[in-house]
Amino acid sequence: MKKVAVICSVYKGDLIEYIKPAMKSVLNQDYKFCELFIFVDGDIDSDVLLYLNELEVKKYVTIIYNKENVGLAQGLNTLIDYIIEKGSHDYIARMDSDDLSRENRISEQVNFLETNHDIDVVGTYCKEFGSSYSLDVKKLPLVHEELRSFSVVRCPFVHPTVMFRATVFNNNIRYPINTLMTEDMALWLDLLSKGFRFANIPQVLLDYRLSESTIGRRISFGKAKSELLIRLKYMVQSKQVSFKNLILVFLRIPFHCAPEFVLKYLYKYHR
């Protein structure tokens, strides 16, 4: 059977009432060849630390503690380095510390990758919850060519739904650490530029937590600038430069800088 490593980062401010069900949703998968790897990114709350200490004694849980906060990208890269060095896992799946993986998530993704040998990274639909602008089902394009075009202006995956073939991370491919809050998008565009192939499974296999404050954290001119430069570079590399794409990419700047009430409306009705 193929072995799956699920990687997750925890940092100060993550709430124990969200972390517990998130971790349980991984440990209770119907796919039994699944291990959980957690990166502790600096100081964390005492109740979270106590819970992680309890988790650490379980057979299929590995925790790496870091004294300083280094950010999500570096934390995930540390876990990937550890897993690739071990060389014992066929697939690497993402998870966030406040989302909920459906019981059959890992088995469905493994089955998909075992059947579709040309696909390197696969995501899924998700159900959002926890905010007034949550979507019952967030859908994304399914096949590689559609995702390749879609990625010029939108993100091709819901990040915590993704599963990679472990071989994707050969040759030192990792999450870029020189971006501002856009590490996942930068990785997708880097992988597309290197010829890796994407897909999404048309099933809701993860419940994605939002809050009323999530939107506010995404309002940033710095993030908008970082995203613009990455997307323009990808547009040129992938030979998808067009007037339409240029307009859509530059419209991402006001999108990231708009008032919160405008963003909530756009997230609810125009995604």
From TrEMBL:
It comes from the Bacteria. SUPFAM superfamilies: Nucleotide-diphospho-sugar transferases (SSF53448). Keywords: Glycosyltransferase, Transferase. Residues 9-133 form the Glycosyltransferase 2-like domain. It holds the Pfam family Glycos_transf_2. GO terms for molecular function: glycosyltransferase activity. Belongs to the glycosyltransferase 2 family. This is Glycosyl transferase. It comes from Vibrio superstes NBRC 103154.
